[in-house]
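Private note to self, pasted from the team thread so I don't lose it. Backbone tokens:
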């Protein structure tokens, strides 16, 4: 009798597990089909990004579906000769079409330049960019978390406005999930989002889960590497890791959407990078927050990277994935705030229901954000702004004096935005609204 009861329990458990898997099947395994598309007839989707160091750039573009002689025409402003830098081409066939992609590497740059992409007798518009002299100097960059825009142009509007308000920014960093899914139409949307921005200042991104196909085997399209080729020389195995030194700072970019053995390879890479780094400021960028806003997620990523971040003095950890804003500060043995400072941010139309872990200093929900990171000698400032009105939402200063590090919390007195309207009859929404109420109390 007892044995039969055990069997029944096992069958019920398996049935419940199978039912749960069935409800999650599409989330885990279904890749939406890609609609047929045609390649661009002239050089388009031009992107300026970094190469191996702060004085190098890569220009990528797409044109036609067969390879043709292609190059970048580069002019040092105001009156330099026109140089011709040959591009490497590759035809990429996706699920529903194919296109030729081109990569041109520009090295040892300094000053202002104009350039355009050329494929045989077809050319892009002219764009310009500036490369500052290497060495110690203040600099700033713009950070955005997940984009996954389905707002048709909204992201481009706020990015342009943000850069008008913060013209000191020299490049843009994305925390992954730039595209909703790897299809031509989503890439088209991504390029419309960065139109007029990603051609004039370097745009770099880490990989996010939406950049990968769903499935048991993790696969990212070659198209991603042809648009963001800086990973080609720095990848470890097939982990898209990248490090960029800029003035006094060094950015370390991880590929956090990987299985544990791949994360372990990245951990070894990060360890080596940190041991060798002489940078005064160290910034880690990865998609999955090391301290999840949704409960106990991303524990493997935390176990792999957080110890190194603390041991080797990472100052700032920029993250995305869990669509909300949050900021957490580490504390030393005396309880004083110190580094690393962890932030989560996004600018996607999707907002997630988060937990309100008391270790965090500040949250933001139901909105979208961007951050400006400014590095000036012994001070690193990170400020978060709302995309709708560009109002300051959070700000924090990390000050280094001699061997000590101080945190100045400039955002403490800016009220948290926690407005939320649950959908009628939606139990999860109502629970979340209740959670917000409890947190506010
Ligand atoms: Fe994500």
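Design output:
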């Amino acid at each position: 009798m007892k044995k039969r009861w055990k069997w029944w329990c096992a069958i019920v458990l398996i049935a419940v597990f199978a039912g749960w898997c069935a409800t999650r099947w599409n989330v885990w395994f279904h890749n939406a089909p890609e609609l047929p598309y045609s390649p661009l007839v002239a050089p388009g989707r031009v992107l300026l990004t970094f190469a191996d160091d702060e004085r190098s750039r890569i220009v990528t573009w797409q044109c036609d579906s067969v390879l043709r002689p292609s190059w970048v025409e580069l002019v040092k402003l105001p009156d330099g000769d026109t140089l011709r830098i040959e591009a490497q081409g590759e035809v990429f066939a996706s699920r529903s079409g194919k296109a030729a992609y081109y990569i041109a590497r520009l090295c040892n740059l300094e000053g202002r330049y104009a350039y355009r992409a050329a494929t045989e007798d077809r050319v892009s518009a002219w764009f310009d960019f500036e490369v500052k002299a290497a060495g110690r100097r203040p600099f700033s960059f713009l950070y955005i978390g997940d984009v996954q825009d389905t707002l048709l142009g909204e992201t481009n509007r706020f990015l342009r406005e943000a850069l008008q308000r913060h013209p000191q920014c020299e490049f843009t960093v994305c925390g992954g999930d730039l595209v909703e899914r790897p299809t031509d139409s989503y890439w088209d949307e991504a390029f419309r989002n960065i139109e007029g921005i990603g051609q004039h200042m370097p745009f770099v991104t880490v990989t996010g889960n939406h950049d990968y196909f769903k499935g048991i085997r993790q696969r990212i399209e070659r198209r991603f590497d042809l648009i963001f080729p800086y990973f080609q020389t720095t990848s470890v195995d097939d982990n898209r890791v990248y490090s960029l030194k800029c003035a006094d700072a060094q950015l370390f970019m991880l590929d956090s959407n990987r299985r544990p053995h791949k994360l372990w390879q990245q951990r070894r890479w990060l360890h080596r990078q940190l041991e060798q780094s002489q940078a005064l400021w160290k910034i880690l960028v990865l998609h999955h927050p090391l301290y999840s806003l949704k409960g106990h997620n991303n524990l493997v990523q935390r176990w792999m990277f957080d110890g190194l971040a603390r041991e080797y003095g990472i100052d700032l950890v920029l993250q995305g994935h869990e669509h909300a804003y949050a900021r957490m500060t580490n504390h030393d043995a005396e309880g004083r705030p110190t580094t690393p400072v962890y932030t989560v941010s996004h600018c996607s139309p999707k907002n997630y229901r988060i937990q309100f872990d008391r270790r965090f200093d500040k949250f933001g929900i139901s909105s979208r954000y961007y951050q400006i990171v400014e590095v000036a000698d012994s001070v690193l400032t990170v400020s978060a702004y709302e995309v709708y009105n560009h109002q300051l939402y959070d700000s924090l200063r990390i000050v280094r004096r001699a061997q000590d590090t101080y945190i100045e919390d400039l955002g403490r007195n800016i009220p948290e935005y926690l407005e939320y309207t649950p959908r009628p009859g939606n139990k999860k929404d109502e629970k979340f609204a209740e959670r917000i109420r409890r947190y506010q109390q």
